[in-house]
Design brief:
The chain contains ten helices and four strands; from the N terminus they run H-H-H-H-H-H-H-H-E-H-E-E-H-E. The chain has about 290 residues and is of the alpha+beta class.
């Protein structure tokens, strides 16, 4: 259930921080679109892709077209997804649409190698969307369409619904530009933008999880606390083959701490059985706070 927004100190502070991220993210996104995508007729996904096509066919400003395309989606989202979702997304779309049109006054344009244009467009739009999504918002467009489809057809994953919507938009843009290459360049933009976005949204909170089976749990945990500064959980374990009782240390660390852990293991218990796995996201003390997600 969506909770009503209350004007208190914490909520106002969070709203101001969110707005700063939205503005900076929109400037990066607009740079990718106005400097590289529009001058080179590179198809884009989402509502922005349709807006670029409208700009090409009817000379409508990209920002204005982006906002108009989102209006019917907002109405559907208001009905099916809730008022708070609409309010937050609407604020992002207003900022993004304004940035798309206002930055044309001072951003330069690049009309050189279209592959280079696609690469830089992907990086800039990925950074822009990442800064928006790291604050728990979306840029509207096919994100809204995907959420609505997923709500009524839960067997269809949200990612699949958005991917299908984006594919349709890219094909429509390619038809508008009458260029197969436009859609091919769009693939470069979408893939690279997604990778950059994932790194920004998840990379900063991503780490490693170590499971260390040892006969020296207290010595090893003390050494990790002293030399790495990470908390350790100690669990009793029993070997299925040997029947021996040992202890397993579980510790979450940043990637940069892995070498320190190896050094501690070599010093305290070089025979410890160690499993190192990827942790998609780590929340809590010493990592990202939960209120930042």
């Amino acid at each position: 259930m969506n909770k009503p927004f209350r004007f208190n100190k914490d909520n106002v502070r969070r709203m101001l921080v969110d707005t700063c991220f939205f503005v900076v993210g929109s400037m990066f996104y607009a740079a990718g679109i106005n400097i590289f995508a529009v001058p080179n007729n590179i198809a884009e996904s989402g509502a922005t892709g349709l807006a670029i096509a409208a700009n090409y066919l009817f000379h409508v400003p990209v920002g204005v077209a982006n906002f108009i395309i989102n209006v019917p989606l907002f109405i559907l989202a208001w009905i099916f997804l809730g008022k708070r979702f609409v309010g937050r997304t609407l604020w992002v779309v207003v900022i993004l649409s304004a940035a798309l049109d206002l930055t044309t006054l001072f951003y330069p344009t690049y009309t050189g190698d279209p592959i280079l244009a696609s690469l830089f467009c992907g990086v800039l739009t990925g950074v822009g969307l990442g800064l928006v999504m790291i604050r728990g918002a979306t840029s509207g467009g096919t994100d809204i369409a995907g959420k609505i489809v997923h709500k009524f057809f839960p067997q269809v994953s949200l990612g699949a619904a958005i991917a299908v919507s984006n594919s349709i938009v890219v094909l429509l843009c390619a038809l508008a530009f009458r260029s197969v290459e436009s859609a091919m360049y769009a693939v470069i933009v979408i893939v690279l933008s997604g990778r950059v976005l994932d790194y920004i949204v998840y990379g900063l909170g991503r780490g490693k999880m170590l499971m260390i089976i040892t006969e020296k749990p207290q010595e090893l945990s003390d050494a990790i606390l002293q030399h790495v500064g990470r908390g350790v959980s100690i669990l009793p374990v029993t070997g299925a083959y040997t029947g021996m009782e040992k202890s397993m240390l579980v510790v979450a660390i940043h990637r940069s701490d892995v070498a320190k852990i190896y050094k501690v293991l070599k010093t305290v218990d070089e025979h410890a059985f160690t499993i190192v796995t990827e942790a998609g996201e780590v929340l809590g003390q010493g990592f990202r706070r939960r209120d930042e997600t």
